[in-house]
Hints:
By secondary structure, the chain is mainly α.
Amino acid sequence: MGYPTYARDPNRPPDGPPEPPEPPPSAPSPCDLVAAALGNASLLGIGYLLLGHWRLAALAALGTVVLLSLTASTAVTRCGILLLLWWAAGIAHGWVLARGRAEHVVRRGQRAALLRVDAYGIEDRVDEAREGGDCEKAVAAQDEVWFGHRLAGVPVVEPGDAVVEARHRLEQAASTLADAGRNGNIEDLERGFGILARVLREPGNEKTVETVLGAFLDGLPTKDSCDTADITDWLRGRERTRDVLDRSADTAARVEPAALVGCGDSLTDEDAWQQARARARYQHLLDTYPDDAHAAEARSGTKKATPAIELDKVPSLVENTSDAKSGYCDTPAKYGSQAERCLRGGAGLRPVGRR
């Protein structure tokens, strides 16, 4: 006996689990309008990458390389104008493409990522300027940092803040050293070098410190030879620290001999006390730089200053002379190259060589 068969109801769902629905066509990933525009402002097509346009990104980067090469090699104004127009067009195109998306969902992560990328670029320029010893350029780059950069990447921009703070201290050192050069004040000189030494202890400041130090050393000799002699004497006697500050000793050795002679010459026409200072300057040169080209001038200056200093001691001794056992006769003062002797004759006692 057979079983009856029934026709299958066409409206009945098939046996087994239901088939999953077909996925809708993939929509382009949403992109923040500002993120796209800022990305293209980098001139590297980053905004196109965020939008998924790889070819446009490659074309943007290639165009930037070509225009930068032309601008750098030809220095023609129109090349610079073309680069500016290329930059503006990339920003506008990125904005338009992002706005044309089916969905306008603001992705905070995109914007933060772009801000971090921009912050890294700023800090790279800060480091490059600092390594080149250009404080002004480093600070100008750091000035581009705004609240958004700090919010998105605080660790990235903090080193730049340290560069700005170091620059302020270097300005103080430069001002203090300039005062020392103007007035020969050794305390200002010590204070200025102390600031430079503290800034130098912080990594990365060697070139900027060297720039400030070089500007001061280039100002030597100063207009006043005696001030220059005081400054160079301190620089030469400064304890070595095995860093860029030791350059100052080489400058001192180059400048000091002429300064000592110039200072001595300026004092030889003064009173006996200044004559003594002049002789000390000359002698210092002869003791420290015996083979220097200025040594002959120093020896001549010493011979000129010595008689005046010796003669200054004679009058008081003569005035106190009453006999052969007092005053000048008892303690004769050397004067000139003649042998010391006393002419006896009462009130006419006088040393030979004095008229």
